[in-house]
């Protein structure tokens, strides 16, 4: 008697592991039946993370209100989450992305178009947003990287600037109750506490 065989149905998360490209993402993402998630890929491997909580959402909305007018005046464009290509087998989706100029109907953004990714760091994304992504962005030659770290009643904002050695160094930093101020990549001036839900 022949053994019964069961064919496993195609599962993109399993069958495409290590092979993900932008083209495959366009075809198979988002995954049907899965809850809303952020999809990013490193080395062809998908990283899924749930949407962050209300503190991050609030801070993102506040940053748009604080930064968009000045970015626009400087000729740049501030967007909420966009897919930024990091190579053939990868992309990131920062919480906000400052582009050198406005785009139209573009799903995938090239690194050369990006002036500054902006990440709202949370415990679940700490290592990726504070260590992995800045290293990737520096390797791509993206001039700035801004991250916001929210704690219970405190916020730290840090702007990194790419040096001649291809590494980021701190360009400006402030915590709640201090003034975060910089002229680059466009004029910014605000108290990080303004990003708190309790402000």
Automatic annotation (TrEMBL):
Pfam families: Uma2. Residues 26-189 form the Putative restriction endonuclease domain. One of its GO terms (molecular function) is endonuclease activity. InterPro entries: Nuclease_put_TT1808, Restrct_endonuc-II-like, Uma2. The keyword Magnesium does not apply. Keywords: Endonuclease, Hydrolase, Nuclease. This is Uma2 family endonuclease.
């Amino acid at each position: 008697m022949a053994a019964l065989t069961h064919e496993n149905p195609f599962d993109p998360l399993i069958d495409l592991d290590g092979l993900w490209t932008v083209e495959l993402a366009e075809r198979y993402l988002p995954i049907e039946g899965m809850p809303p998630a952020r999809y990013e890929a490193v080395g062809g491997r998908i990283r899924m993370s749930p949407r962050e909580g209300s503190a991050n959402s609030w801070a993102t909305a506040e940053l748009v209100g604080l930064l968009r007018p000045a970015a626009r005046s400087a000729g740049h464009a501030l967007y909420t989450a966009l897919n930024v290509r990091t190579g053939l087998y990868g992309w990131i989706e920062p919480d906000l992305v400052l582009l050198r100029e406005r785009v139209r109907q573009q799903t995938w953004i090239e690194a050369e178009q990006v002036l500054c990714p902006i990440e709202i760091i949370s415990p679940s994304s700490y290592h990726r947003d504070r260590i992995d992504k800045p290293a990737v962005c520096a390797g791509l030659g993206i001039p700035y990287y801004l991250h916001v770290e929210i704690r219970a009643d405190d916020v730290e904002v840090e702007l990194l600037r790419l040096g001649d050695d291809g590494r980021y160094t701190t360009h400006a930093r402030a915590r709640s109750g201090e003034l975060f101020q910089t002229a680059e990549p466009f004029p910014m001036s605000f108290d990080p506490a303004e990003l708190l839900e309790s402000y």
